[in-house]
């Protein structure tokens, strides 16, 4: 009785084709394993490409500064070292699905200008996107306030009202909202803005969405600035409060830069000639 290989060779000779050598012949089981391995590898490559595309899309929508990463952060003071430690714990907690489903979490960064608050918040957001595909939105409160005020202009021709409603819906739905410059240069928000912000935070709380709030005020000043209703909304979250008290990391104006560029007397108002 001829083997399958013999039959294939006889058929090949009858058709004028080359025959299989001993090394060229592959049995069905081995061939199937090879095809399965190849198919699995192709699936893994496709999944990897799809994940990279999803992560790239999330980064694109987040509006984060690409330079705000832990790799670019200089840990040169105790407050920054402590903040990074808390940030890494916050990120690691996302590995636990029960923690993510337990409720809403908020990181409250407060301290003077240039202390690294926005940088660390951005680094947290970047890492959450890369590791867990968390959707992120970075916004400055002052920008949202302006857009909200303009949305009341019913005579506007640029659909600002519709745009703000779309933005507001995104603020509610995004997994992590990074809200920067909260009450910057403001002693107290207007009452209607306090209510709007408080309602936004409470709706995100109900939907189990996380937030990072960044402010230059201390906690007492912040409570006064955003109002009690809004501040109580913050307290409802599982809150991590991080105070930044180290030196400013922003370069100042040098003595040479501070000098006038010309010796020509500068104009002074109300001069009598």
Automatic annotation (TrEMBL):
InterPro entries: IstB_ATP-bd, P-loop_NTPase. Residues 260-273 have a biased composition (Polar residues). Residues 251-273 are annotated as: Disordered. Residues 82-226 form the IstB-like ATP-binding domain. SUPFAM superfamilies: P-loop containing nucleoside triphosphate hydrolases. Coiled coil: none annotated. It holds the Pfam family IstB_IS21. GO terms for molecular function: ATP binding. One of its GO terms (biological process) is DNA replication. PANTHER family: ATP-BINDING PROTEIN RV3427C IN INSERTION SEQUENCE-RELATED, CHROMOSOMAL REPLICATION INITIATOR PROTEIN DNAA. This is Flavodoxin. It comes from Salinimonas sediminis.
């Amino acid at each position: 009785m001829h083997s399958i290989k013999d039959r294939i060779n006889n058929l090949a000779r009858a058709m004028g084709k080359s025959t299989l050598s001993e090394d060229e012949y592959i049995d069905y089981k081995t061939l199937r394993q090879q095809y399965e391995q190849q198919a699995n590898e192709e699936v893994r490559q496709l999944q990897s490409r799809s994940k990279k595309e999803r992560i790239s899309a999330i980064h694109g929508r987040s509006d984060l500064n690409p330079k705000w990463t832990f790799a670019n952060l200089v840990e040169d003071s105790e407050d920054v070292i402590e903040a990074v430690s808390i940030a890494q714990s916050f990120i690691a907690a996302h590995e636990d699905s029960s923690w993510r489903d337990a409720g809403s979490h908020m990181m409250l960064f407060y301290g003077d200008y240039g202390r690294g608050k926005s940088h660390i918040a951005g680094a947290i957001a970047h890492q959450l996107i890369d590791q867990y595909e968390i959707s992120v939105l970075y916004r400055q409160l002052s920008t949202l306030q302006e857009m909200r005020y303009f949305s009341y202009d019913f005579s506007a021709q640029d659909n600002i009202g519709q745009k703000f409603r779309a933005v507001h819906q995104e603020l509610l739905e995004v997994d992590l909202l990074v809200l920067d410059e909260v009450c910057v240069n403001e002693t107290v928000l207007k009452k209607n803005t306090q209510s709007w912000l408080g309602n936004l935070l409470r709706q995100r709380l109900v939907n189990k969405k996380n937030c990072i709030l960044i402010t230059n005020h201390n906690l007492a000043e912040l409570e006064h600035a955003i109002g009690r209703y809004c501040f109580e909304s913050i307290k409802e979250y599982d809150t991590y409060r991080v105070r930044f008290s180290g030196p400013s990391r922003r370069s100042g104006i040098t003595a040479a830069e501070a000098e006038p560029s010309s010796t020509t007397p500068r104009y002074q108002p109300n001069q009598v000639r």
